[in-house]
Structure formats: C-alpha cells, structure tokens
Design goal:
Blueprint (H helix, E strand, L loop, with lengths): L2 E5 L4 H12 L3 E6 L2 H5 L7 E4 L17 E4 L12 H19 L3 E5 L11 H15 L3 E7 L7 H9 L2 E4 L5 E2 L4 H14 L3 E4 L5 E2 H12 L5 E4 L1 H14 L2 H14 L13 H22 L5
Parallel strand pairs: 1-2, 1-4, 2-3, 4-5, 5-6, 6-9, 7-11
Antiparallel strand pairs: 8-10
Helix pairs in contact: 1-6, 3-4, 5-7, 7-10, 8-9
C-alpha cells in the first residue's frame, strides 16, 4: 500500500484530499499540529503525525515510507505571530527539505492561480517563491494552481444575504472556482500523470456579475448589484497596508488583486456553483432554525 503525506490536512481542501486518497486505497498520513483536535474534525486519515511545519525538529520521522507528499499549507489570516513567509514559504520549505532528505519520489503543492501577476501581494509572493523553489528542487513535482474554491465564494453569498453585492468596474471579468472534492480528484489525476504544472477550475465560467446573480438566485431574492469605479479597488490596494494591521490587509490585498483580473483555468469536475450556493443557503437556514428552537420560550 502506498503512503501519502498530506500537510494542511485539516483545512478545506486538505480534508477532501485525504478522503479521496483513502478511498483510492492509499495509506493517508496527515501532518497536524494537534492530533486531538484533528480527530474532532472527522479527518479521514489512517495516521496522524503531530508536528508543526514551522518547526523542523518536530518533523523528524514524518517522511518514513512516504511515496507522495501533498502540501496545501498556507494561511489566509495571519495569527499566532506567523506571517505568509513563515508558513506559505518557510513551512513548506521545511517539509520539502524533509522529503528531499528522505528520498521521497514526488512532491505536490497547492498554489494559487496568477500568483506571478501579484508580486506586491505578500500571500501570492510567498507562495510563488516556494513554487519556484519546488520547481528547481531535485524531486519530481506537481504544482496545482486552482482558480479559486467554492468556499471562497461565500463572501458573495454573504453580501447577497445582506441585501447588496458590491463589484468593481464593469463586473465582466471572469472566474471558474472549483468544488473541493472535484479538485481533489483532478489533482490526483494530474499527480498520477506526472504533470509539472496543472491550473484547474470548475465547470462554470462566470463573470463577476453572473456570480453575484447566482448568489441572489440561491437566496430567491432579486439581484441588487452596485458597481464601483475600479480606481477605488486600486486605491484600496495601495492604502490598506498603511491603515490596517497585517491580518486584515493580507487577505484583503489578495482578494482585491484577484478581483482585478480573469481567474479562469481549464474546467474540471461536475459540481455546479449554483448547487453549492443552494446547499450553503439550506445549511444556513437550518442553523438559524436550530438556533431559534434552542432559545428558551417566554411564557
């Protein structure tokens, strides 16, 4: 039985990857910071290795008998005093060094699409720096570049639920985010084929306006969309680092930069974004109903 090490296994995509490889008959070893907490997430892995990717000493033995490493490590919001260069770059480099020392034959990394077009965005710059190191390393490598995840589209649904979606410019720039399960299956195929770089997106290529309309359609409410001049987006990118802390402007810079360009990759998978939105709306309504029923009733 082959063994895959999944780093970042408790995250959105990491859980899908672990589930997919386990279902395919692999032994899944998950690198986790806290094994007890990881068990509470219903992570589908036969083995949990407790260690911190930011601490190389804690990784001793993690690569024993590993045939494939898949790293989804990265942070969207800086915390614990760690930044993008600590995690997206250095922590991934620590894992790569362990793989090289142990003679692991294949290393796959989940990157972001168009990171090379966002040199001033710390999140993208750190990821691109590691991707460059991996591509140059003496190991078989596969770099997966998703155009975006369905889970990233929650911001549009939240705006629609609040009553209005705000867009920049014409709203005609396009994107095709992909479902986590579809991406896990597609990346496994790319890894098996030995592809070095594999951009991937979902089956629906939508303009930002169409994405906003899909969010309103899932809610069953008429669309209310306001388009702001694009200079406001560009000005915010320049201004935010000066007026907000890193944990605020870090993800905001990436989000705003991505909104300013097409984020379209070769379509993969079968799940539609409209289905995802419908499921999210139903889940939110169920949670609201549960919360209301749990409140004490006044006489």
């Amino acid at each position: 039985m082959k063994t895959v090490l999944v780093a970042g296994a408790t995250g959105y995509l990491g859980r899908h990857i672990a589930r997919h490889y386990k279902a395919q008959g692999w032994h899944v070893r998950a690198l986790v910071r806290d094994a007890e907490k990881a068990r509470g997430t219903h992570l589908e892995a036969q083995e949990l290795f407790e260690g911190a990717a930011t601490d190389p000493d804690s990784l001793e033995g993690v690569m024993a008998d590993v045939d494939l490493v898949i790293s989804t490590l990265g942070i969207t919001r800086q915390r614990d005093g760690l930044g993008y260069w600590d995690v997206d770059y250095q922590a991934n480099l620590n894992i790569l060094n362990q793989a090289l020392a142990a003679g692991v034959p294949h290393f796959a990394y989940i990157h972001v699409m168009n990171a090379d077009k966002m040199p001033g965005v710390p999140l993208a710059a750190a990821k691109q720096a590691f991707a460059d190191r991996l591509a140059a390393a003496p190991i078989r490598s596969t770099i997966i570049a998703p155009s975006g995840f369905f889970s990233d589209m929650s911001d549009f649904l939240a705006m629609a639920q609040a009553g209005r979606v705000w867009l920049f410019g014409s709203g005609q720039l396009r994107l095709n985010p992909i479902d986590g399960a579809d991406l896990a299956a597609a990346l496994a195929e790319a890894i098996a084929e030995g592809r070095r770089i594999a951009p991937m997106g979902g089956p629906d290529i939508l303009t930002q306006t169409e994405l906003a309309e899909a969010a309103f359609a899932a809610l069953g409410t008429p669309p209310r969309i306001t388009r702001l001049p694009d200079w406001i987006r560009r000005a915010a990118i320049r201004l935010l680092p000066w007026v907000t802390p890193a944990h605020i402007h870090g993800p905001a810079l990436f989000f705003l930069s991505a909104l300013g360009q097409d984020m379209v990759a070769p379509p993969r998978g079968t799940k539609r974004l409209s289905t995802h939105f419908a499921e999210e709306v139903q889940l939110r309504r169920t949670r609201t109903d549960t919360s209301r029923s749990a409140r004490p009733q006044t006489p």
